[in-house]
Amino acid sequence: MTAKVVNACVLIIGNEILSGRTQDTNLRDIANTLGGWGIRVAEARVIPDEESVIVPTVREVKAKYDYVFTTGGIGPTHDDITAMCIAKAFEVPLVEHEGIANLIRSRSQDASEAVLASRLRMAMVPEGGGLVDNPGGPPGFRMENVYVLAGIPSVMRDMLAGLKGKLETGDQVFSASVKAYVTESSVAAGLGTLQSELPNVDIGSYPFRDAGGYGTRLVVRGTDQSVLDDLCDRIRALVRASGGALADEASSE
Amino acid sequence: MTAKVVNACVLIIGNEILSGRTQDTNLRDIANTLGGWGIRVAEARVIPDEESVIVPTVREVKAKYDYVFTTGGIGPTHDDITAMCIAKAFEVPLVEHEGIANLIRSRSQDASEAVLASRLRMAMVPEGGGLVDNPGGPPGFRMENVYVLAGIPSVMRDMLAGLKGKLETGDQVFSASVKAYVTESSVAAGLGTLQSELPNVDIGSYPFRDAGGYGTRLVVRGTDQSVLDDLCDRIRALVRASGGALADEASSE
Lengths: 253, 253
What we know:
Order of helices and strands of chain A: EHHEHEHEHHEEEEHEHEEHEE
Number of helices of chain A: 9
Low-confidence stretches of chain A: 249-253
Strand content of chain A: 25-35%
Radius of gyration of chain A: 22 Å
Oligomer: homodimer
Strand order of the largest sheet of chain A: 2-1-3-8-7-6
């Protein structure tokens, strides 16, 4: 049985991530949320707030993946150029969205003309774009298969949560893991054999060190939970046969 | 005066990052370390442990950037395919490096044949590759401008630290910031004017919320510290003129 795969690319747009100033957490949040819905993040890119990079990158990945999710660059300041770049990538004009503009005006009664003008930048969306709800502020937008989310993690999460049930999804990928105090090299040959036998399952090996010493976490991922459970049993047997100790039981994630 | 720019691309190789299971921290560490040496991370990509993705990606970015740093996929298990993929990207064979192999053999006196064979996978490097020291284990390698580092953060940091003084570097980028309780839209027009005046400085605006309320952190980056200091003074004046409150003084990072 072939799994139905729907994939996505995440574009983290922001100089502050590339400079090392800010630790990105949006990729992990998006991957976990989409993964739970049956959409696999197949690639992520972190790119600067530069039109000459954003436009060709969006063009490339929107053609390559089922979905693209961007984060960052949708505020009211000069460095917020995501909407303009998406419009260029799709070769459509950037237009004021009446609904967003009215929402911003209704919340800006006390604002000066200059402040209102800055806020109205957030109402500019590529022509033909749809809205992405944002419970805490002006909506984001989507243009065909590209969803434009905020960079602030809490706002991004709210916007993403609102997309639940609105996206095409594939088979969900489940995972299970075995934590063992064993060196990777002791189980490497056995794991390789298991992987060859089960090409539809992804077996990953991740060394760690904790209070109990050096060990390896073996993570299995696939669309059939019963296959994963059987595989974890075989991995536990492999660990024991290799002289390793099991740290705990497999945990489904 | 034009700044001398040396740039880099970071490739985070690992399904565990794309699945959302593991939070990557290597990008931030690499960006901070390289930034301190005068090398700018211009792009980062997170890609899966798949030859069909790794090989073309390495080919593309090694031609596009001065340096490429990869993390992940250099252990002894079946899912560690980075070295093989780098060899393919450079169209050279993967060969056993005598120095690494001898080091592994000397540390594997008690190991079985099978375990030794798995460990010796870590001695396979692309023909013509140089070594990257690893104080805690088998060395990584570099192939022309591509540096192959471990995925485990502590090991990655040790390997990267060992490259200090061995890389071509450009002008260092400094940063300074002003934290203010002011909305982005209140200062947006003024910031845009400052950015137009100073095209060689990068002015970023990052909204936040903390115990003091909603605010904006204005971060300036450039190669001339005195320009940044002057700019921070002007940003503080802009915040005050916009009715905002300064949360603290500019801090150099």
